[in-house]
Design goal:
Distance between the termini: 59 Å
Number of strands: 0
Strand content: under 5%
Order of helices and strands: HHHHHHHHHH
Shape: elongated
Largest sheet: none
Structural class: mainly alpha
Number of domains: 2
Radius of gyration: 22 Å
Helix content: over 70%
């Protein structure tokens, strides 16, 4: 009897593994097709294909990231924000966590959802100030995005206090020079209104003027 139960369980889990493997293959096929459509600027087609990929593998963060990009290229910022938010929740290996929250805030800002945008900027600030250790390779990028979040929150006094309390005298060139330049860039963020800052910061994430989304 025990042997029969063991065989049944073996077959059951074997079928599950086989089914999961088939789903993974199907998801990859749809994702590959979506990537090809995306590269040719067929963003709506790419989104449909990615929805199919996600239906077979709902835990693949890449599919959500690519879908979010296609959505914001179509100016569907609210949908892009929700997709990107889902990507963040899945991507535990994300090396740019502070930057991800700031960018999600910008998507909400572009969607005309200031309350949600502010919540993401606050999350970015709390993460940075809560003992978060950024990846060494991206520390400067993440720190700049931390100050970008402060700028969106109009926390100039706080930013100036943080910078003024840093002692650069003990540092040698080129590290001291790098930090001085970083501080200058950070403080320049506060010369713009949050609306101006959003429009300027988001430009680098948009298609160049001579590229238009295509329909198929």
């Amino acid at each position: 009897m025990n042997k029969l139960i063991f065989i049944c369980l073996f077959l059951f889990y074997g079928l599950i593994s086989y089914s999961q493997a088939k789903d993974t293959i199907r998801a990859k096929s749809f994702a590959d097709s979506a990537w090809k459509a995306y590269q040719k600027y067929y963003f709506r087609k790419s989104i449909k294909l990615l929805d199919s990929a996600i239906s077979y593998d709902p835990t693949n963060s890449f599919s959500y990231h690519l879908k979010a990009e296609a959505q914001w290229f179509l100016c569907d910022y609210a949908d892009a924000a929700e997709t990107y938010k889902r990507m963040i929740s899945l991507d535990n290996g994300n090396l740019l966590k502070v930057s991800a929250y700031v960018f999600l805030g910008m998507l909400y800002g572009k969607a005309g959802m200031p309350v949600q945008a502010t919540a993401q900027y606050v999350s970015a600030v709390k993460l940075w100030e809560g003992g978060y250790v950024p990846h060494k390779q991206f520390k400067t990028v993440e720190e700049l995005d931390y100050f970008l979040a402060l700028a969106f929150l109009e926390e100039k006094t706080k930013a100036m206090k943080i910078i003024s309390e840093r002692n650069l005298d003990s540092l040698t060139y080129p590290r001291r020079h790098e930090l001085e330049r970083l501080h200058e860039r950070c403080l320049l963020l506060f010369d713009k209104t949050p609306k101006e800052l959003l429009e300027e910061s988001f430009k680098e994430y948009m298609l160049s003027g001579d590229i238009k989304p295509l329909e198929e």
